[in-house]
User: Which sequence fits this backbone?
């Protein structure tokens, strides 16, 4: 069993991005984060992203709105950022409060600034295999950790558990594409899948993106598989100062011995997500600069 | 074994669409076909579509361009149709000559007139499960024949062979959605898939969209499966007046006895494609009218 060290791979990605940023002529890349309300996880994610950006020489700003902002007002703000040539990238931190349509908000971000890749145009570009599109950061991070670890994908069976817009669907579509570290047979499973373990046991590469703590156990995994654990679930843990700990969708301790490669939680996919956001922001800057 | 009679189901769809068209106030729905060059199959497809439109009271027009039209000129023509309020729907008949980028041309059609659903916005809407989008006519036809035949999909395993933009990918995404006649486990296979038959034998619903005559044989199909044959392949046949006959991707005669349901070629998916184009044109008209 080899641990896929997301921290180390993310550091390598960030080093590459940082070197490219330093070599850029003119102003640095810039990203604006939009946060609505004060969801603690969102606060923490945006903080981490802003700190990483600062370390790389990427300008960032947080536009924070109260929980009860109207859809109209939020969309008007996004439109003003779309029109602002000094803004390369826009990221609306999910989840949004219930009265706002995430789809409408994501689609309002200009496709060339949509570094989260959740808008309809970038999702369509992924289906079209158009390399000009932005791929959502978590799926892009999964692909990058596989690519940098040189895990074979062509002709292999990738099984994705979870069909979310943010992880499951784009992750499967990435591995289905033609090209290097792609050309996989891809299966999407989810809550309605019958006999899940029989399907997941076929996976050469199993991507667990369900959002349920310890859902994937040893029965779901075949000997020699690569397991990518996307879950970040809070589980009560009175022994921790915060009263909880973070665990993945995979029963790591019981599954790891069967795996050829496995990502830990934390320290697996999480850091890759942040790294790919920086890579996407650099890409957005290059595009806006060349346009 | 029950034959899925695409002609009969398409006739039912067309009857519904025709009744709705007749009940519309104001001008009838209108679709413009763009054909570049004189590919005989394209000529025949566009003819069939125009005849069907006429029968339903849908206005249609063919804009025909020479094989060597420049991309600029074609895109300018599409822009003029996008801006023309009297045009509800635009369909650029594929394939295009090699010097034209199909992706660029498909993406140039306004999303609200893109009744073929090949543009990036409508593909993204499919990934987002946004019912406002247009779904490509062949995948939509496959879904409709399954729906009208009341073949159970939820929790079943749909295996799609072929990952094209036009059939394979959107077909799989349709059955992966939440909702009725969806919520399937979905697997995409293709030319790089290892041990294809072992994968396709898991299918409750097998969609063959490879474009290779008689590629799917009895070894690929499990007892009791539903088989949807999307292939329309020319095979030499000196006994026919034209010198060829049309066959599917499935070895129909050897596979049918294993199936619970199977579509024939011709008379299966083909008529459904045309019917769904009419349904999409009506939908485009409603949208343009209400806007």
Assistant:
């Amino acid at each position: 069993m080899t641990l896929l060290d997301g921290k180390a791979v993310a550091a390598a990605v960030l080093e590459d991005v940082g070197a490219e940023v330093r070599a850029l002529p003119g102003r640095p890349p810039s990203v604006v984060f939009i946060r609505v309300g004060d969801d603690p996880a969102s606060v923490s994610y945006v903080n981490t992203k802003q700190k990483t950006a600062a370390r790389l020489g990427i300008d960032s700003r947080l536009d924070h709105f109260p929980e009860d902002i109207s859809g109209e007002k939020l969309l008007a703000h996004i439109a003003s950022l779309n029109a602002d040539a000094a803004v390369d990238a826009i990221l609306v931190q999910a989840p949004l409060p219930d009265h706002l349509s995430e789809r409408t908000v994501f689609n309002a971000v200009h496709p060339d600034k949509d570094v989260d890749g959740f808008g309809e145009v970038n999702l369509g570009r992924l289906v079209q295999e158009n390399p000009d599109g932005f791929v959502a950061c978590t799926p892009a991070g999964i692909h990058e950790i596989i690519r940098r670890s040189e895990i074979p994908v062509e002709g292999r069976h990738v099984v994705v558990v979870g069909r979310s817009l943010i992880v499951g669907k784009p992750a499967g579509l990435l591995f289905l594409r033609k090209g290097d570290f792609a050309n996989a047979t891809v299966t999407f499973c989810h809550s309605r899948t019958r006999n899940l373990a029989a399907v997941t046991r076929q996976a050469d590469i199993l991507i667990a993106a369900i959002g349920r703590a310890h859902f994937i156990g040893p029965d779901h995994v075949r000997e020699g598989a690569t397991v990518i654990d996307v879950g970040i679930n809070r589980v009560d843990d009175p022994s921790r100062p915060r009263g909880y700990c973070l665990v993945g969708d995979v029963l790591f301790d019981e599954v790891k011995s069967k795996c050829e490669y496995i990502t830990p939680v934390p320290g697996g996919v999480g850091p890759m997500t942040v790294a790919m956001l920086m890579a996407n922001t650099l890409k957005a800057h290059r595009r806006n600069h060349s346009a």
